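Budget justification aside, the reviewers requested a transparent look at the raw inputs and outputs of the sequence design task funded under Objective 1. We therefore reproduce one unedited record. The lines immediately below are the structure tokens for a 107-residue chain.
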């Protein structure tokens, strides 16, 4: 299973998620951002690679649908509901990710 974590800038939440789940058995992970000018932007190729796209906020899902709808055919998109209130690898963010994400990683 290929999992893409998406947030706004790809600086805090999605790279944290990528790191937390990097060694999870049976999955490959990546992360990207949706804002213009972010260092690692979402691309059509990344979305076509992903079986599962986990976005941090509903606004991310909406933006993905508007900008990349043709490339989301093969991916399930899930909103995690994690606000932009955390630093990279913040222990509370890690705890929230560990509580919310694993249910979607089971086949």
């Amino acid at each position: 299973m290929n999992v893409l974590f998406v947030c706004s800038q790809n600086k805090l939440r999605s790279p944290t998620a990528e790191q937390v789940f990097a060694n999870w058995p049976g999955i490959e992970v990546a992360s990207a951002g949706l804002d213009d000018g972010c260092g690692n932007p979402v691309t059509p190729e990344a979305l076509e690679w992903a079986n599962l796209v986990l976005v941090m906020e509903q606004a991310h899902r909406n933006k993905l649908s508007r900008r990349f709808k043709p490339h989301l055919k093969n991916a399930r998109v899930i909103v995690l509901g994690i606000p932009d209130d955390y630093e990279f690898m913040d222990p509370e963010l890690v705890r929230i990710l560990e509580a919310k994400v694993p249910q979607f990683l089971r086949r």
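The chain has a mean pLDDT of 95. The radius of gyration is 12 Å. Computational costs for records of this kind are itemized in the attached budget.
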